[in-house]
Amino acid sequence: MTTKDIAELVLKLLTTLVWPLVTVFFLVRYREALQSLMAQGKVKFTMAGVTVETTLAKFEEVMTDNLRDKTLLSSQWESLQQMAQAPIPFDRAKDYEHLRPLRDAGLIWALPKGHLGDAKEVVISPLGKLLLNARQKEQSKTEK
Fold first, then answer.
1. Are the C-beta atoms of residues 90 and 119 closer than 8 Å to each other?
2. pLDDT tens-digit profile of 64-99?
3. Three-state DSSP class for residue 69
4. CA-to-CA distance for 9 and 17, rounded, in angstroms?
5. pTM of the model as a whole
């Protein structure tokens, strides 16, 4: 291999790597600005026959307000994890006060459908799964 061949090989390699390197540089350099733009992004969904369009920031605010500024107890998180596997039995005398905040926030559903007080079992809702998955991802990031 001649010096010219090596130079051409290096040049091809550099041209191949330039765009990915420039892209990574700009993503890292402007990360905060990009995150800010994404937070202002819009989400559109249909619920009960009504199409709702809102910003991600407003959606986050509404979801947080659903918990009425309360944080979930570790035992409530554990209940959500159990329900993610399968519905769990419900005993009104023992479970009502513990699970009511989860029901009020739309994180769980009563089975059969109806009032929590009449439930035989409780199951995690899609919203509850979304929250639980987000928490698990957040925890795995902090463990690294």
1. yes
2. 777 776 778 899 999 999 999 999 999 999 999 999
3. coil
4. 12
5. 0.60
CA 132, CA 140: separation in Å to the nearest integer? 12
Q: What is the pLDDT of residues 23-35, one digit of tens each?
A: 777 777 777 776 7
Query: Given the structure tokens 């926030």, which residue do they identify?
Result: 105
Cβ atoms within 10 Å, residue 134 = 10
Question: Same domain, yes or no, for 25 and 44?
Answer: no
SS3 71: coil
86/48 same-domain check: no
Which two tokens mark 136? 């698990």
3-state secondary structure 104-135: HCCCEEEECCCCHHHCCEEEECHHHHHHHHHH
Strand partners, 122: 88, 110
Domain count, the chain: 3
Judge whether 62 and 43 are in contact, CB under 8 Å: no
The Cα 26–Cα 39 span in angstroms is: 18
Q: Contact at 8 Å (CB) between 103 and 123?
A: no
Q: Whole domain around residue 21: which residue ranges? A: 3-37
